[in-house]
């Protein structure tokens, strides 16, 4: 009998719905300079509508972010990030949507939770702002601990590994210990290997190939591969120009299917429909074993 990779070991997150399969986290970037959608949802009304459209297409929760974290991006100031994010979180939450806030600032996380967000997705794992862990602990909401080595302006120079799986796992374990010591309950922690953050294509592919080892950390796993550079490299082949971000959605859905089969708690994607189909097929296959 084969060992099941999926629902039995996927994990539950206190404070969030208990989905019976890999969840789909839809992305709403309230930024003018996102690598993937270039400001299409920068207006609050458009952003809220986009989030509701993604729910209609099969997303289970929506991740709202007001700061681009693409390689080389410069930081937006706190006041502007709050202006972008909080009204969108409030608008989606008022419609009954499960909302995550994508931020590295404690102040933005706290205001977003007040507006209705029920998950804080910090790509720095609490390293960018020393106030983040205390703020999330006080709010008693779940927290995504992502593998991170530095801000976007510098991340490419930090993509140096002898053994990417071993190093990412060890660095994540260190951050998890720090987050728990800071007061966030273990049952509220989600882990993200940080695909594309201080990583080259070969590093990202190696991590996707070893998701079970990352799950062995003992926490629900979020996989965020959507439209990222490593998929462009795969699709282009050696020496060719990668396709634009918006032409990587089929490749994204392929990674979503792999992640769901390997027991990921959730996948984070810009276009939902194909991934929603992929995770549901993966769940049906699990049920047929």
Can you describe this structure?
It is a single chain. The protein is α/β, with parallel strands linked by helices. Helix content is 40%, strand content 12%. The protein is built from ten helices and eight strands. An eight-stranded parallel β-sheet has the order 6-5-4-3-2-1-8-7. Helix 2 packs parallel to helix 3 and helix 6 packs across helix 8. The longest helix is centred in the middle third of the chain and has 18 residues. The chain starts with 22 loop residues before the first strand and ends with a helix.
Which labels suit this protein?
289 residues, alpha/beta, 40% helix
- Tally of extended strands? 8
Classify the helix fraction into a percent range: 40-55%
Broad structural category: alpha/beta
**DSSP strand (E) fraction?**
5-15%
Please write the string of helix (H) and strand (E) elements: EHEHEHEHEHEHHEHHEH
Spans of 5+ residues with little confidence (pLDDT < 50)? 1-8
Query: Can you tell me the overall shape?
Result: globular
Oligomer: single chain
Output the number of helix runs.
10
Strand order of the largest sheet: 6-5-4-3-2-1-8-7
Distance N terminus to C terminus?
Answer: 9 Å
Largest beta-sheet details: 8 strands, parallel
Q: Overall pLDDT, averaged?
A: 91
Report the radius of gyration as a whole number of Å.
17 Å
């Amino acid at each position: 009998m084969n060992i099941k990779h999926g629902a039995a070991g996927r994990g539950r997150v206190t404070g969030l719905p208990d989905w019976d399969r890999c969840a789909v986290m839809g992305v709403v970037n309230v930024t003018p300079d996102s690598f993937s959608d270039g400001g299409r949802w920068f207006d609050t009304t458009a952003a809220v509508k986009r989030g509701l459209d993604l729910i209609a297409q099969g997303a289970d929760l929506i991740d709202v972010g007001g700061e681009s974290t693409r390689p080389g991006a410069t930081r937006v100031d706190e006041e502007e990030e709050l202006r972008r994010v909080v009204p969108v979180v409030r608008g989606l939450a008022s419609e009954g949507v499960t909302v995550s806030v994508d931020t590295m600032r404690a102040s933005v996380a706290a205001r977003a939770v007040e507006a209705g967000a029920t998950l804080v997705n910090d790509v720095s794992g609490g390293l960018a702002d020393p106030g983040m862990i205390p703020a999330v602990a006080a709010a008693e909401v779940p927290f995504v601990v992502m593998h991170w080595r530095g801000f976007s302006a510098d991340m490419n120079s930090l993509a140096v590994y002898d053994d990417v799986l071993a190093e990412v796992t060890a660095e994540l374990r260190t951050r998890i210990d720090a987050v728990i010591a800071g007061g966030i309950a273990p049952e509220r922690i989600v882990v993200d290997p940080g695909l594309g953050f201080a990583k080259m294509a070969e590093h990202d592919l190696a991590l996707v190939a070893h998701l079970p080892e990352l799950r062995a950390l003992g926490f629900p796993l979020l996989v965020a591969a959507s439209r990222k550079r490593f998929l462009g490299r795969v699709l282009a082949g050696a020496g060719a120009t990668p396709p634009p971000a918006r032409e990587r959605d089929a490749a994204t859905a392929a990674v979503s299917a792999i992640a769901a089969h390997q027991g990921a708690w959730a996948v984070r994607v810009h276009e939902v429909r194909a991934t929603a189909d992929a995770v549901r097929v993966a769940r049906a296959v699990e049920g047929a074993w």
